[in-house]
Design goal:
alpha+beta; set domain protein methyltransferase, domain 1; set domain protein methyltransferase, domain 2; 18 helices; 11% strand; elongated
Length: 512
Amino acid sequence: MSRRIRAFKRWMQSQGIEWSNGLEFIDDDEGGGISVKAIFDLNEGDLVATIPKNACLTIKTSLAKDIIEESGLAESLGLSVALMYEKSIGEASNWAGYLQLLPDSECLPLVWTLDEVDQFLTGTELHKTMKEDKTLIYEDWKENIMPIISSGQLDNVDLKCFGVEQYFAAKSLVSSRSFEIDDYHGYGMVPLADLFNHKTGAENIHFTNVSPHSDSETDNESDGEEVENGFHDNSNDKPPSVEKGHSSSNGSPTAVDNKSYMNGHAEDQTTSEDDPALKDDPTALEIIVVRVVKSGNEVFNTYGTMGNAALLHRYGFTEPDNSYDIVNVDLKEVIEWSSSIFSSRYSRARVSLWRKLGCSGCVSENSEYFEISSDGEPQIELLILLYIIFLPKKTYDKLNQSVPIVEDIKKTVNILLSEDYSNKQVSLETPENVNSLLLTKKVRDALLSLADIRESFYGINSISDDIEALKRCSCIRERKLYHSLVLRVSERKIIKKLRTYASKRSSKPKKR
């Protein structure tokens, strides 16, 4: 057991944090971080940890509470200040034993240089997002942290701990390790809970708020229930609820027979299941096993069902063959492509009819886009738009003059297809048949053109070049390059599948 793990265990005991002797903390000195493994079999329903809320680092528990609240800071910004403050006072911090376990920062694109962002992320879903994030977070520091430094409220601590680089580092830790705890505490750093690594759709544990009571109508609705998995973004968006973890490594667990031990004590150790008062304590959080873990296996949490762009953005890693990966095609790119064939006026008019028929893309801040799923299938709203772009003028004029504003996508499709198939009996009962009817030769060619445009964003290297580079890359020694290549390859595979999808021939109308 490493020195920092021993120090962390002593600190947890001093804070009243209880954990099962079935958990072993593995410290990978080569850069793999800390993982959690099972020393003996853990069964569904087993309580493996109880964490007092006061042991969590939040705005409410930090010594910087007054400074943060007087400055009107909240959420990730306020928590980042709390984290910087506690780190600045060293051993005087109540979380010194926990903070010594954390890296200075997580390897998120947020803390990469702009050159690295351009080098590793060009063409990916993250490239533009990370540049915007870095600008916004710098502005946050300038507008909110600098006034605190200038106010003299931090004269008793090392002001170097509140520099812009330190703020970015703190934001990376808050992004990758914080949980929303409850309405009072908001969200914060939850020691022990942030050691479990992520595994999509195969988590072994859930982190729950055990309070069975609600003091007001505004109390957290998840009290007494499992809190949904999820994490907040690098931006100032309000985060989701309780859950988190980091990196994996190998270790050799020791077999232990007694499954009821907590904190190294014997069978008479009182747990929250034995003590009704502790079980009903609204200040406690619990970690419960929800899927069996065999002895020697790693114990996983899940950060939610996210594609690699979101995982790298928020947590600094990716998963090969991630079934939740997507690629986006911006509406702006579709309009530019259409305008290159017809005209800007023509394209705007067709988009206007598309909106009149109740359609829109996905919206994120200042952009509107269409998702291409991991199997290469485009969002139906994109197919509808392309179909409208190629409508004959006579059909377009008729629809534009006679169709009222529509809000139901099924009705939209029926209106469109009834024009082309008015003299034929067409089955619109299944999504597959609807998509097939929308997928005319012109729409398929348009999808291929959009695939070419999207593919061009990655530069001159082919997908084969990226795959070969990924095979030669070390996940530990070249972490930035490795995870950016996983992201690039996964996105480019989706574009390749989009081409396959677009190459399918449309089916003939089926008779009812």
